[in-house]
Amino acid sequence: MATNNPPATRPELRQHLLQARRDWMNTPAAAQAQADLQERVLAVLAQLEPECLGLYWPMQGEFNPMAVASTARSEWACQLALPYARKSPIDMHYRAWDGNDQPDTRDECNIPSTKGKPVRPDVVLVPCVGFTPEGWRLGYGGGYFDRFMQAHPDVTAVGVAWDLGKLEAATLAPETHDIPLVLVLTESNSWSA
What we know:
Helix content is about 30%, strand content about 25%.
């Protein structure tokens, strides 16, 4: 992110990055970035060979993992799953998803999900609003992914982000509840924690 004066708080930084992402999504570079990041994600997943891949339903200009889902099912015959978040108590788990149809329900945060049975992915793709090369993630502020990763430390959490979300460690200092991602992939690079 090219700015001399980054926003002072996480909510301000989040809003700043989301606006930059919305503006960028209307450029020709965004379509090429989607293709490039998809290629990177597929290459990493080919090495990891997940048995159950936790995805997410894309929103607000996030990387769209639906083509990745299709490849994972056809080439690796892996189970697919979507997160289901609860607001009270705050919790997130994954539910089996066939990958062929639109999600058939919404979770308590109003994000598309599925009525499938609960499953435990061994690899999850985690969308990032912002990230540092050290694997720290700025999400939407609910803490759902951090709680899931803390409860399941054996799950390989791979962040997916756009280059424009890259932050310096001084800008996004980790908080006590933050859990670093194993790897962060963007359209042009990858960083491992």
